[in-house]
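Q: Got a minute? One more chain.
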Amino acid sequence: MTESSHVSPGQAVPGPAGADAGRPASAAGHLDDRPPGPAGSRLVVGGALLDGGRLLAARRSAPPALAGRWEFPGGKVEPGETPPQALVRELREELGVEAVPVARIPGTWRLSPRHVLQVWTARLVSGDPRPLEDHDALRWLTPGQVDEVDWLDEDRPALAEVVRLLTADGGRSGAGDRNAGGAGPGGPPVTGEPPAGTLP
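A: Always. Here it is, folded:
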């Protein structure tokens, strides 16, 4: 992508020439560790954390322009890290949990002129999610509940694919995962606050 190209927030971003930025590395399901996105862009990785057929949503507490909206938890990939390594670190720092990256959601989305987003599904292994950094509430959502919270626009394309995956396997994604505690399926936010539909 050239500097003169205009990309709106949330718009899909093509990968480097000759690369398909939206596909996992192989049909065998191996994790794609390639640096994605246009040259000069910093990668942000988001985690579609799954447990028992549910998706964890995190409500932003900052900056003011994003506060109160919901997103996939995650953060910037640091130099020397692969996206899966960054996701494991970010979920540990932001939520206090251990998770295993499973697969990359097809696509890369522009967050700002300097940042692009990739989203990975991840399986919760241990810990009870808590909003430790950048968030003030968490909520487990079934596929039928994802529209009950106000998602960041940039997360919506990946969210649609995560819901499709959860629905296609009849809610079995994460089957065999431990119950993460906190809110049960369709329950209130993990923080104990009222459901998102009742928030001011």
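A: The helical segments are 83-95, 156-168.
Q: Perfect, thanks.
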